[in-house]
Amino acid sequence: MIKPGSTIGIIGGGQLGxxxxxxxxxxxxxxxxxxxxxxxPCAQVADGQITAPYNDEAALRELGERCDVLTYEFENxxxxxxxxxxxxxxxxxxxxxxxxxxxxxxxxxxxxKAGVRVAPYRIVENAADLKEAVGEIGYPCILKTARGGYxxxxxxxLRHEGDFKETDPLLAHGACVLxxxxxxxxxxxxxxxxxxxxxxxxxxxxxNIHHNHIxxxxxxxxxxxxxxxxxxxxxxxxxxxxxxxxxxxxxxxxLEADGTLYVNELAPRPHNSGHYSIEACxxxxxxxxxxxxxxxxxxxxxxxxxxxxxxxxxxHVERALTQIPYQPEWSVHLYGKKEAKFQRKxxxxxxxxxxxxxxxxxxxxxxxxxxxxxxxxxxxxx
Length: 382
Ligand code: ADP
Ligand code: MG
Description:
The protein has helices at about 15-25, 55-65, 80-90, 95-100, 105-115, 125-135, 170-175, 225-240, 275-280, 285-295, 315-325, 355-365, 370-380, and strands at about 5-10, 30-35, 50, 70, 120-125, 140-145, 155-160, 175-180, 185-195, 200, 205-210, 215-220, 245-255, 260-265, 305-315, 330-335, 345-350. The chain is an alpha+beta fold and about 375 residues long. The protein folds into 3 domains: about 5-90, Rossmann fold (3-Layer(aba) Sandwich), CATH 3.40.50; about 120-180, 2-Layer Sandwich (Dna Ligase, domain 1); about 185-380, D-amino Acid Aminotransferase, Chain A, domain 1, CATH 3.30.470.20. The strands form 3 sheets. Strands 9, 10, 11, 12, 13, 14, 15, 16 and 17 form a 9-stranded antiparallel sheet that branches. It has a 4-stranded parallel sheet with strand order 3-2-1-4, with helices on both faces. The chain has a 4-stranded antiparallel sheet with strand order 5-8-6-7. It is globular and about 60 Å long. Magnesium ion binds near residues 252 and 265. It is an enzyme of class 6 (ligase). Homodimer.
């Protein structure tokens, strides 16, 4: 067990690192973050920063020397470098989880091996493969780069042959997967945590609403039948088992009208759809992650009250700030990012509520997310 007073090193200094650090500091840990951007969101709450690229081996070695345990806040760390780090530092999550989840091909293979359904897909490396794959999968389908995508980056939806012209940059990036578009009724996610001893905990199954491929809103618990929840939990457990998880794994899923569940994507870390847990659960996903990597016994996760979480992207921040005086029930989180760029995740708000539908309406009426509403109205009118 890693004791309070010890130092935790976090690779990556964005909002996930920041919220991990805040949870760890509550328990008396010290934090050093490795990130190339000085004064990044995590550094603002950490005890120290090593300002260097994530894959700088000397920097990682220094982090290992100064810390008692290392974790990471994102999956795009260089696998070989992290693997080396497991030789000179304590990295309870290991490097294998990163190797698999940073490549959609390996990830889908691992999920399928766990006996869990993924959307039909083909591996595509060039224009000829793509044509053949589209012939097999059919329209509509989605081409995704195997590596390096996030928040919809590195993805193109194909509805007819005319869309092929957009695919060159993706194929130039390297291997891709072509996936069938799943006509889902809901997107769900489950966050699962496991410590080194092998104790496992599950956060409630939640419902996620995306706009332009970016998470807009999470509703906890998901408004689905209990049988669906149970199955979603079982799927997450199977995948975690297959991956020999230590740490946190977020499992994103699609639910079809007939109740079929598919695993869409995995994230080997706390996840945007788990931010509501800071206020709504007996322990947050960040607190549980810290317990897991320090090999503390895991807390029993209980949803204390239903919740809605809305993301604040660059275009929402100013309007959200003007709402603060009128919204006493909003727990406001801002990540300390300097520039409020369009579509950039700047913060989020969480509302605890027994009346989900009323809360959804009140969030809509606040006008903060009017760009999202305009788009959904346009979609309805189409
Ligand atoms: P990332 O989160 O890394 O950007 P995802 O694969 O999770 O990539 O895709 C982002 C979003 O795009 C999903 O949450 C979903 O809304 C939509 N999407 C992705 N793949 C599919 C698919 N096969 N069928 C339907 N929608 C999809
Ligand atoms: Mg995703």
